[in-house]
Every structure is written in structure tokens, then in C-alpha cells.
Amino acid sequence: VNNIEARTRSAFCYAPGKAILVGEHAVVYGASAIAIPIENGVRVAITDTESHLKKQGIGPLMRGVGTFLFGEAYIGERSFGPAPIKAMLNYLVEIFSKDIEDLVIIVDGSLPPGRGLGFSAALSVAVIKAIDRYLELGIDNESLYKHANALETIFHGRPSGIDHAAVINNRPIGFRRDKDQGIHWPIHIGCDMTMVVAWAGPHDGTKNAVQMLKQRKERHHDLYENIFKGLDNLSKAMEKCLIEGSLVEVGELMNIAHGYLSAMMVSTPELDRLCSIARGRGALGAKLTGAGGGGAMIALSEDQGSKLMQAFQDAGYPCMVTTIKKTIS
Ligand code: PMV
Questions:
Q1: What b-and-e string marks burial along 303-315, b requiring 16 or more CB atoms within 10 Å of the CB?
Q2: Residues 174-191: tens digit of each pLDDT
Q3: d(CA 300, CA 303)
Q4: From atom 10 of ligand 1, which residue's Cα is the shortest distance away?
Q5: What's the rounded mean pLDDT across residues 25-46?
Q6: Phi, psi at 280, each rounded to 5°
Q7: Residue 260: partners with Cβ closer than 8 Å, 6 or more residues away
Q8: pTM listed for this prediction
Q9: Nearest atom in ligand 1 to 210's CA
Q10: 163 lines ligand 1 (CB under 6 A)
Q11: DSSP assignment, residue 26?
Q12: CA of 23 to the centre of ligand 1 (A)
């Protein structure tokens, strides 16, 4: 009986993706930003049913299944797989020690990676929480943030922290960096909102986009500072409109945010096209979301989102709908 129990032990966790409503990039320089969870996310299952892998010097093993994912990755004597996933496994062994060496971590999900929708944050949070459940450690919130930040650093370089804060909280949040610390607070939404997210292809990588922007900022320091200040004001105005449930204004502010992002040169012709499609079909507002240079656009729908979904599908773009419910406080 013990044997069967040992072989069927498993743990699961789900973490949502996120979309930034306002303040990406500027948040790296201290401006406030707003993020929402989206309905597509990452699922992780952990089992020890393939413990023979340990004997082969493989493990822990991560297996990404589903349309968008990466196949197999493992470390140890016969290391294999994408470098960031292997670096992630090495970090996990460092913090959870040999206890995880014979585990198989299966990743599945409906969230495409590399589109600015928080895939790496969702993966990081779901994996840490699933291992914590599996080992029955009862990890505290502070450690969860710390480890998620360390894993996000592997994927992004120097993350502001907004992605994993949005994923961990799984509700709309305001976020700001203050003296290298991420501060976040809940935003109580005044009415239901439907967002449609569409994307063209992967972006050029958050690390790259943040670095290129830094170089442009060095060349045009004061102008960029003014843009960040503008985006900080925009975030504050949007927070107020979200709380009041003034969706027409939220949409207008999203359009302005896209203008600022274009000014910072992180939009692309394709992202501009996605915004035009959305606005042409009656979206209250539309903007790129995340690091830009490709990736996703988010549009605020005036209805349940079917008109916008149809428009993107007709134009050949993958898309998904997310509803944010009015907060009952
Ligand atoms: O990784 P993405 O595409 O979700 O972008 C994260 C948001 C940035 O502001 C561009 C970077 C950061 O660390 O805040």
C-alpha cells in the first residue's frame, strides 16, 4: 500500500496570466502602473511517478505540454532543454534541495509565452506553489515573492516585479517601485469590464525591449522623464476611473497610453494595426500590453467581446476574452 501511495503522490497549481493596463516600461523607472489578471493561465502538475529518472542522472524534469510549450528540460549529468528553463530548475534545486531531484514537473496552459501576458511569472508562481504543496512546506508570502522575483530575473534580467505581483494577487492591482522595493495595492473595480486580448507573434523579449529603451532614454533623458511622469499621471487617472466604473474614460486613457508607448518606440506596425482593428469595431480603447516590440494588444470592449473576437478572427489573429468582475468590497 505504501508503494502505491508513494507512486501516486502529486500536487497541482494554477496561476493566471496578466495584462498591464497602463504603465509598462515607465514602471521600471518608478512610475505607477496597473495590471489585471487574465483568464488564460499556466497549470502545473508535480509527480514522483518517474523516479527512475533520478537513477539516470536526470531530474528534476520539466515537461511543457500543449501548443505553445517547450518539450522537455532537465538538469543533472545529462542536462537538456532551453537555457532559462534549465536555469530555473537549477534555482529550484538550490532552494528546495535534493527533495525535488526525482520530480517530474508537467506544465500545461492556455497562455502563449513571449507575448507580454505574464507567462514566465505565471510559470514561476505556479511551479513554486506546486512544489510547496507537494513537499507540504507551507511557504510564506514573502518567500513566494522572493523566489518568483529570482525566477523572473532569470527570464527578464531586472524585472520591476509587476508581473509576479499581478499573478500572485490574481486581482487588479496598482504597482510602483520605491527604493528597489515593489509596492502593490488592490484596485476595486466599479463595474464589470470585458477585455479582448489579441496577438500577432512573440515579442523580441522583455530584457531586450527594456535595454533598448534604456539606451534611448540615455540619449533623450528629459523627454523620457516627461513621458514617465505623463504615464504616472495617466495611471493615477485610470485608477480613479476604474474605481468609479467610468469605462469610456478608461478606454480613452488606454488610447493615450498606447500613444506614449508609440512615442517610446515599443509599438510595431502590427500592434498599431491590432489597435486600429479594435477601435474600428467599437472598442472603448486599445493599447499594446507588456514589453512591446511584438506580442499582445488589449482592448476594452463595449459589450461581451464577441464583436471584437470576430474582428480579430476575421483578420487572422489569435485572441481571447477576459472579464473582470466588479469588486464586491
Ligand atoms: O514581460 P512583459 O512583456 O510582460 O513586460 C513586463 C513589463 C515591463 O514594464 C516592460 C518590464 C518590467 O519589468 O516591468
A1: eebeebbebbeee
A2: 999 998 899 999 999 999
A3: 9
A4: 291
A5: 96
A6: -65, -25
A7: 26, 227, 230, 231, 234
A8: 0.94
A9: 10
A10: yes
A11: G
A12: 9
